[in-house]
Amino acid sequence: MLKVHINKQLFHYDLEVDFTATSEIIVLFGPSGSGKTTILNSIAGLCQPDSGEISLNDQLFYGDKNGSLPTRERNIGYLFQDYALFPHMTVEKNIRYGVKKKGTELNLILEKLLDVLGIRHLLSKYPHQVSGGEKQRVALARALATEPSILLLDEPLSALDSETRTECQNELIRLHELWKIPFIIVTHDMDEAKKLGDRILFLEKGTIIKTTACNR
Fold it and tell me: What is the rounded end-to-end Cα distance, in angstroms, of the chain?
């Protein structure tokens, strides 16, 4: 279980949130500047709260007295809005980047990802040779290939056309059913939030003003 209880002074307001997540999809929804990405970055260790605590499955990520666990030790997958693929690497090398497992065990993980995401035919291509939807799938495969304990997604589908976006939404749901780990997703699209989320946390100026359960 993910537990987040943090405070952080931002430019226009104080961020103060308190929530938990089991093996479910949590959507962070709210206007730009409401603190959604700051929450993701705090979980990932890319920024540090001023106070509070973050833990996952009894592993302390951040605590007032214990300090902050380095990002590399948090076993987190993070899918950024721009996908952050390495342009000089093939799709296959991008997916394998940072994966510690080798041999048969790794190949089993990759085979599952390639099948679910339908990107086997892209392995020898470079990022500039694939479409936006394909880049999203490659970035998702790379994030999950490390077998993270949680997956963070910052507006992962915002740059896609409507048809591709719908396809990728379905793939995210299918991958979540297979991996059974917490997914924390930021989106500005309410229809997308309702489709993907088990729960939606509505944020305004750094505060969770409402939580809604969804019936996916």
Answer: 21
Neighbours of 96 (CB within 10 A): 19
Q: Where are the domains of the chain?
A: 2-213
Report the distance separating Cα 46 and Cα 61, nearest Å. 11
CB atoms near residue 51 (< 10 Å): 13
196-137-151 Cα angle (round to 5):
55
CA 139 vs CA 70, 86, 117: distances in Å? 22, 10, 11
Please name the residue that has the structure tokens 């086997």.
Answer: 120
Looking up tokens 């592993």 gives 59
Q: What pTM does this model have? A: 0.93
How far, in Å, CA of 94 to CA of 139, rounded? 8
The full length of the chain comes to 216
pLDDT digits (tens, 9 = 90+) for 149-196: 999 999 988 878 888 889 989 999 999 999 999 999 999 999 999 999
Q: Which two tokens stand for residue 100?
A: 């510690």
Q: Could you tell me if 17 and 35 are in contact, meaning their C-beta atoms sit under 8 angstroms apart?
A: yes
Domain at 2-213, CATH from 3.40.50.1820, 3.20.20.140, 3.40.50.300, 3.40.50.10470: 3.40.50.300
